[in-house]
């Protein structure tokens, strides 16, 4: 039985460990252990049945020394202030490690969005903005979609903000639909970003990408483009992907002797993300249990589904061939898995570096909104590659210089950058 973990306590513990390694001044550490600002508010919505229902909303702004806060809004029934605090803190580190000029924010509403009609969802999105509009904005805090929210919902939020401030302001939220202020390349961004960091790690480890095999967990947005990128950008082979099947309510692994064809699998995924098993079988795919992905003979593992799937149990089943783990998902590896990687000399690209392609392209979206000039998909992906390559190499340099594990090195790079920005702005002398 998994013990209940408070995510904010976890975020603070991770920070404390690195603050100690960096020998941070205790006062400076105290500034960064907590968010700078927190908003909790009530949102009344007239429901379709005529009743008035009141929802609990949040926004947490962890630190904006490096630029406007940035981070998603989650609609989830188990949302808590501590979850939002933790996610806002992690966004500060993610933006800093990717070296984009943004801080860390996160927001949410306690609600199961599947219980709402389209009109009720729109009212709730607009209500969240009416509660927060004075404290968000392109120079202030820029929300984005997250669990339970969609590009359409970001479109409604942008519209509500624009009405309230009296001018079209597309840069107030990112993750908007294409044609409604969204950026080309956002769909591919996180998966391709994973692949750019894998390419750099392979150079460091002297691995030949064309002779390498990857095993991927998941077949959602991140995993799909990581699989396509591994084949088309790196010239490697993908042994398998796994996918949750909504009909059978369990996950399955799909493999093929000569490697999977990610574009074919993408063509047989339904609108809810389930692979058509019959079509896969007819095309020669072997279908096994969802956990089988981690047992495959592979050089690279890319967990890109959910948190905690690479753990004390599953690492026991890993092939000894694995040299590299690229964390596409947020928090896929447990502390026990980290110990296993260290003991077995497996190189890890930590999640908030590996999957930073999404927030980097969100940043590109707000830059394009500000300019009112839009780049081609190739331009977006080229700029993304430059950013991800630089971010990876900054972390690798820190890991080599300080002789630390990549995850610790990523935290060290991120925290040092935020501290430096606070120093340069004089916050550590006069307050803010
Ligand atoms: P998604 O919902 O599109 O895909 C999730 C995938 O995981 C689906 O294919 C689902 O079938 C699969 N899955 C669920 N349970 C599984 C199980 N038990 N075994 C195997 N597969 C399972 O989500 P996504 O956007 O691809 O996000 C995946 C992860 O990446 C999450 O941790 C998310 O927080 C993180 N992430 C996503 C982005 C982004 O831009 N999409 C950015 C940063 C981080």
CATH fold node name of the largest domain: Rossmann fold
Shape: globular
Total helical segments: 16
Second-tier CATH architecture of the largest domain? 3-Layer(aba) Sandwich
CATH superfamily of the largest domain: NAD(P)-binding Rossmann-like Domain
Strand content: 15-25%
Query: Averaged pLDDT, please?
Result: 95
Q: Segments where pLDDT lies below 50 for 5+ residues?
A: none
Which ligands does the model contain, each kind named once? nicotinamide-adenine-dinucleotide
Defining key terms:
alpha/beta; 2 domains; Rossmann fold; binds nicotinamide-adenine-dinucleotide; 5-stranded mixed beta sheet; 432 residues; globular
């Amino acid at each position: 039985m998994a013990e209940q973990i408070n995510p904010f306590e976890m975020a603070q513990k991770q920070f404390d460990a690195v603050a100690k390694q960096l020998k941070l001044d205790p006062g400076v550490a105290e500034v960064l252990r907590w968010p700078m600002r927190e908003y909790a508010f009530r949102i009344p919505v007239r429901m379709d049945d005529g009743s008035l229902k009141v929802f609990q909303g949040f926004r947490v702004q962890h630190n904006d020394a490096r630029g406007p806060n940035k981070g998603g809004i989650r609609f989830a029934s188990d949302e808590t202030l501590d979850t939002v605090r933790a996610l806002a803190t992690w966004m500060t580190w993610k933006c800093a490690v990717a070296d984009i000029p943004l801080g860390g924010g996160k927001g949410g509403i306690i609600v199961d969005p599947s219980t709402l009609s389209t009109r009720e969802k729109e009212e709730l999105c607009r209500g969240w903005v009416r509660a927060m509009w004075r404290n968000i904005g392109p120079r202030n805090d820029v929300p984005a979609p997250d669990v339970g929210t969609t590009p359409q919902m970001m479109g409604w939020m942008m519209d509500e903000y624009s009405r309230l401030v009296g001018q079209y302001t597309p840069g107030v939220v990112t993750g908007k639909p294409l044609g409604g202020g969204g950026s080309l390349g956002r769909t591919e961004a996180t998966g391709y970003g994973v692949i750019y960091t894998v390419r750099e790690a392979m150079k460091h480890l002297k691995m030949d990408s064309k002779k390498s095999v990857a095993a991927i967990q998941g077949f959602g947005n991140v995993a799909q483009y990581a699989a396509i990128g591994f084949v088309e950008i790196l010239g490697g082979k993908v042994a398998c992907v796994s996918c949750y099947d909504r009909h059978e309510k369990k996950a399955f692994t799909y493999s093929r002797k000569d490697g999977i064809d990610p574009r074919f699998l993408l063509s047989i995924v339904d609108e809810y993300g389930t692979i058509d098993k019959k079509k896969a079988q007819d095309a020669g795919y072997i279908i096994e249990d969802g956990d089988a992905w981690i047992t495959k003979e592979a050089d690279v593992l890319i967990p890109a589904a959910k948190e905690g799937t690479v753990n004390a149990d599953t690492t026991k089943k890993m092939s000894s061939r694995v040299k590299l783990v690229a964390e596409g998902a947020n928090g896929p590896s447990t502390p026990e898995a980290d110990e296993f990687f260290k003991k077995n000399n497996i190189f890890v690209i930590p999640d908030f570096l590996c999957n930073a392609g999404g927030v980097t392209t969100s940043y590109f979206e707000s830059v394009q909104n500000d300019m009112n000039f839009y780049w081609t998909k190739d331009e977006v992906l080229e700029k993304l590659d430059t950013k991800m390559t630089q971010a990876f190499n900054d972390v690798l340099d820190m890991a080599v210089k300080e002789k630390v594990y990549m995850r610790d090195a990523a935290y060290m790079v991120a925290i040092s950058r935020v501290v430096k920005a606070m120093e340069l702005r004089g916050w550590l002398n006069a307050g803010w």
